[in-house]
Amino acid sequence: MEIAFRWYGDKDQIPLEYIKQIPKVSGIVSALYDVPVGEVWSIDKIQNVKNKIEAKGLKLSVIESIPVHEDIKLGKSNRDSLIDKYCHSIKNMGSLGIPILCYNFMPVFDWVRTDLARINSDGSNSLSYDHSKLLEIDFKKDLLDLPGWATSYSRKDLNDYFEAYSNVDEESLWLNLEYFLKKVIPVAEESSVKMAIHPDDPPWSIFGLPRIITNESALVRLVKIIDSPSNGITFCTGSLGANLELDIIKAIKKFAGDRVPFVHFRNVKHIEGKIFYESKHPTEFGDVNMFEVIKALIDVKFDGVIRPDHGRMIWGEQGRPGYGLYDRALGIMYLAGLWEGINKITSK
Ligand code: DNO
Fold it and tell me: What is the C-alpha separation between 144 and 233, in angstroms, rounded?
């Protein structure tokens, strides 16, 4: 098991030098942030990021993510050439020995929250989600005010996407995912890359857009599309943990054997059904039993990569919501302690 930390490249306010000072961290999760979606990630560009990371004595362990172009998710007629380019990027990362690729298949939005700085009782703040607030947003009018994502799209882009997705239901999205995976997984296998899909966050439809990687039966369907360790899952305890109907411990036991190369650790605390906030990492503060998740990973001899996912903003830190230094570093210390303790006791 390797512990890694997400780094957003040179623009990240947390430099690699600081990341290196967090005990137990040896890996970096990163990406290229200047390649337009749909273009090939060149060997040179990937090598350049890798060199920077290695120069600090760390390792580029995971690419998160090479974004999947919307036209692939929509199943448009130009998808084959986009998929070829995606395969090319996989080959390039594989040729540099980077073993894991986290990606997602969420239409238009990646993770969505309705508040990026909910004030907690201890004065820290967290990302939070309230479905009733999301429903109040008129996506034709107010979407540009959605916390965090407004800046990513022009109103025209958004309207065009919503129009295009009005013809794509969940089953069509599944078929488009299958089409994509049947082309990319063989290339990932040849390139010694494990693809690991990130669950949809939150794990239900938003703004009427289809979302499919939301529960256990979806994970079952996903891994069956191609029975290969290269067709895997990023087991995100926060995204999956937001779905109260999913037994997260049962799910990790079911898939972690050979289909989970990468785990995101985040705890969530529900106020009710579709209302939750991202809590401190330890079990007692949220609804995800971290002890049991780690125990399950140790039981299956997990040898992939883990990273703390979003943390709170504490000690007055400001910066990219969810991606401050302090709380994620605390999360690592908690997870590493649990790991050491459970591992020692179970291997006796
Ligand atoms: C949230 C992250 C996601 C993740 C993508 C992977 O902070 O876990 O944005 O990187 O969904 O494609």
Answer: 31
**Does residue 217 have a cis bond before it (omega within 30 degrees)?**
no
Ligand 1 within 6 A of 65 CB? yes
Please identify every residue annotated as catalytic. 198, 236, 264, 309-310, 323
- Strand-strand pairing, 59-64 and 25-30: parallel
pLDDT digits (tens, 9 = 90+) for 53-110: 999 999 999 999 999 999 999 999 999 999 999 999 999 999 999 999 999 999 998 8
Residue 146 in contact with ligand 1 by CB distance below 6 A: no
In this structure, the strands spanning 59-64 and 231-236 are: unpaired
Number of folded domains that form the chain: 1
> What are the tens digits of pLDDT across the range 7-42?
999 999 999 999 999 999 999 999 999 999 999 999
pTM higher than 0.85: yes
CA dihedral 332, 333, 335, 336 (to 10 degrees): 110
Q: Measured between alpha carbons, how far is 203 from 239 in angstroms, rounded to an integer? A: 6
Tell me which residue has its CA closest to atom 3 in ligand 1.
111
Task: Provide the domain limits for residue 303.
Answer: 2-346
* Cβ neighbours around 168 below 10 Å, total: 17
Name the token pair of 202.
């939150």
The CATH number for 298's domain is 3.20.20.150
